Amino acid sequence: MSRKFFVGGNWKMNGDKKSLGDLIQTMNGAKVDPNVEVVCGAPAIYLDFARSKLDAKFGVAAQNCYKVAKGAFTGEISPAMIKDCGVNWVILGHSERRHVFGESDELIGQKTAHALESGLGVIACIGEKLDEREGGITEKVVFAQTKVIADNVKDWSKVVLAYEPVWAIGTGKTASPQQAQEVHEKLREWLKANVSEAVANSVRIIYGGSVTGGTCKELASQKDVDGFLVGGASLKPEFIEIINAKA
Ligand code: PGA
User: Fold this and answer.
1) For labelling, which of 10, 78, 91, 170 has a CA lying 20 to 30 Å from the CA of 120?
2) Integer Cα distance of 179 and 142 in angstroms
3) Which atom of ligand 1 is nearest to the CA of 211?
4) pLDDT tens, residue by residue, 117-130
């Protein structure tokens, strides 16, 4: 089954109207492979701005959301609000949410369920820390994280699974194509055994962690790598090269 290549940009807490506006202009004017689904993760306060300026062929994602539609949750945003801005995706479970802000697997699962019920697509992030990789428990960690997500998903067509080894995020240490492929393949096997063969074959598993214009092509050539989640390089014109990694 062919899986449409998916490239997400994660702007994190970076940029302002001037610099993001310039980036958006570059993206709108670039020649991009029409066979790639592109989604830019904007800071919450710039979701409206990004959606109104980015060409309609590019999707926009929030970088987080809460697990209910509204209420007394100071500082949070809901999937309903995200959709109200014309934005159709949310990144959930990013390692910075897990490890800087202490989000639990349980909360990420609840957020996933509510975001999907609200009609958002979810880029669900998982990944092991360095000590976990060195301790030989990468699979155990990513399977456990994936299980909590899977327990909260009814419609897998709205989910992209992002494998992002924590040791590779923002460190300049990209996983080797073999390291990425190995985990992606295992994740697909897990999905086959625990969800269904159809889901295992159709769900996009994307890689994140120091992806650059220089590393993207070989990573993209791996059988089970269906795209990328890009942090630092998504703020640069280099992002276009990554979008076109398979072209
Ligand atoms: P990076 O970030 O590309 O800067 O390593 C990836 C991510 O956090 O999604």
Assistant:
1) 170
2) 14
3) 3
4) 999 999 999 999 99
